[in-house]
Design goal:
By secondary structure, the protein is an alpha+beta fold. The protein is about 15% helix and about 40% strand. It is built from five helices and 22 strands. It has a six-stranded antiparallel β-barrel. Strands 7-8-11-14-13-12 form a six-stranded antiparallel β-barrel. The longest helix has 18 residues, at about 1-20.
């Protein structure tokens, strides 16, 4: 048994050493850093939610060499940011793979000096695709049963066999999620070309509320989303939506939470009609809006 454990430990250490070239450190203020993936010789991928709001960055590459990089694009919807390196690196080939609940996962991070950190844990959940609150489509819901330091967020995650699963990120309550390799492969080229991912937009700020008791039977649901504010000249304002309206559904999708309606505003929704069912002053109304592209922030 001891011999098997030693062999397993040695294989994991060798795997980590072979893959550490895929991990780089992005310098932040006060000697802090965050981890990133060397996606290809001139491109680095990082966690958008952790990346500082600036255009130029200093990186510590594998082995400790210094490199400059410029922001190529960022997408809050999928939590992906892309940087272009000023000089090429030599990353290992990342071979995408699949995983399942109960499988081992190896999450790598940068130590800030050119070395690597490693975390080993189980895949707690390997589910189907889902939408983030910001409207991005994530190809699989992968949750890891391990701890992750703030500096390690954005590093690559591998299976025990070395298959590339995706990028680590911290979700609510510091839960460790993986942005799958398939999502990275889909979004990174768009960010390199366009700098952003266009998604649909109604121009409203919504907040979950309970449907008044007297209207629940008529509405057919117990909750909706109240319009707290509107963008001037936005699609919702043009459609006649006003602050205080309770949105019950968008294109027949119940508006009982942000993620329930996020799928209505993918990139291919732009220009399409959104049929809105709302409550206003105790009455049920049906209004139509034309989805527009969300303005750049």
């Amino acid at each position: 048994m001891t011999e098997l454990l030693e062999q397993f430990s040695s294989e994991l250490a060798a795997r980590t050493a072979a893959l550490q070239g895929a991990t780089a450190a992005i310098r932040r203020a006060r000697e802090r850093h965050l981890s990133a993936i060397v996606w290809r010789p001139d491109v680095v991928v990082a966690s958008e939610q952790s990346l500082p709001e600036r255009d130029e960055f200093e990186l510590v590459m594998p082995g400790g060499t210094q490199a400059a990089a410029k922001l190529a694009g960022r997408d809050p919807g999928t939590n992906i940011a892309v940087l272009r390196l000023s000089q090429p690196a030599s990353p290992p080939v990342l071979v995408p793979g699949e995983t399942q609940a109960g499988a081992l996962a190896l999450a790598l991070g940068a130590d800030g000096t050119g070395g690597v950190s490693a975390r080993l844990g189980l895949v707690n959940l390997a589910g189907t695709q889902w939408h983030s609150v910001a409207g991005g489509l994530i190809d699989r819901r992968i949750v890891l049963d391990l701890r992750l330091g703030r500096a390690e967020e954005g590093g690559p995650v591998f299976s025990a066999a070395g298959a590339f699963l995706g990028m680590s990120t911290l979700g609510p309550r510091a839960r460790v999620l993986v942005i799958p390799a398939a999502t990275l492969e889909r979004i990174v080229p768009i960010l390199l070309k366009e700098g952003r991912v266009a998604r649909g937009w109604l121009g409203v700020a919504l907040h979950p509320v309970a449907v008044p008791d007297a209207l629940r039977e008529t509405a057919g649901q117990a909750s909706g989303m109240m319009v707290m504010s509107l963008a001037e000249g936005g699609p919702a304002a043009k459609a006649g939506i006003v602050a205080g309206d309770i949105v019950l559904s968008v294109n027949d999708a119940a508006a009982s939470g942000f993620r329930r309606i996020a799928g209505q505003f993918a990139a291919d929704s732009i220009g399409r009609k959104a049929a809105l069912r709302v409550i206003r002053g105790g009455n049920l109304l049906s209004l139509d809006a034309v989805i527009e592209a969300r303005p750049p922030t």
